[in-house]
Amino acid sequence: MTNWQRTFAFVSGALVFGLLFIIISNSFIQYVANPGTTGYLFLFGFGLIFLNLNFGISRRFAIKALNPSGIAYLMALLTIVPTIFWVYTKDVGLAELQLVFVLTVIFSAFLGAYFGIRRGAVKRQQYIQRLRDEKQDIPESLKRPHDDLSKN
């Protein structure tokens, strides 16, 4: 699979996951506005879900892609756009906490993408090192263009 096909698959998958998440969780957004611990726990839960979702998508993409940074942040954006659109177009019962909810979702999504890229790069290096240790041929999709030139 070449990079543009992988990129298209991951970007469209991120949008689908974002749409799927808001369809499943739209009835729980109203609990963020509850006073006290309940509201904070639901806000924290939404943040954790977006963090983990984007961490997983970005890590998996970074293992296979050569330069995953821009695409991973685009995927994070596409996972939160349906939620932000839903919150601003529907009356979900957030009232004055709407901005806090949106900022929490944005922060956690981009934080998950950041740590996913870092962890994916480590996993990629471990995979390449294991292939070199086993003296196997490195797949073309994992080779860097200058790898063949460095053998003098």
Which key features would you list for this structure?
single chain, mainly alpha, 71% helix, 0% strand
How would the blueprint of this fold be written?
Layout lengths: L2 H23 L11 H28 L4 H21 L8 H36 L19
Helix pairs in contact: 1-2, 1-3, 2-3, 2-4, 3-4
Task: Characterize the structure shown.
By secondary structure, the protein is mainly alpha-helical. It is built from four helices and no strands. It has helices at residues 3-25, 37-64, 69-89, 98-133. The mean pLDDT is 86.
Low-confidence stretches: none
Distance between the termini: 30 Å
**Proportion of residues in extended strands:** under 5%
Q: Give a quick account of the main beta sheet: strands, pairing sense, barrel closure.
A: none
Mean pLDDT: 86
Q: What is the overall number of helices?
A: 4
Number of separate strands = 0
State the share of residues found in helices, binned by percent: over 70%
Oligomeric state of the chains in view: single chain
Instruction: Tell me, briefly, the overall form.
Output: elongated
Query: Topology as H/E string?
Result: HHHH
Structural class: mainly alpha
- What is Rg? 19 Å
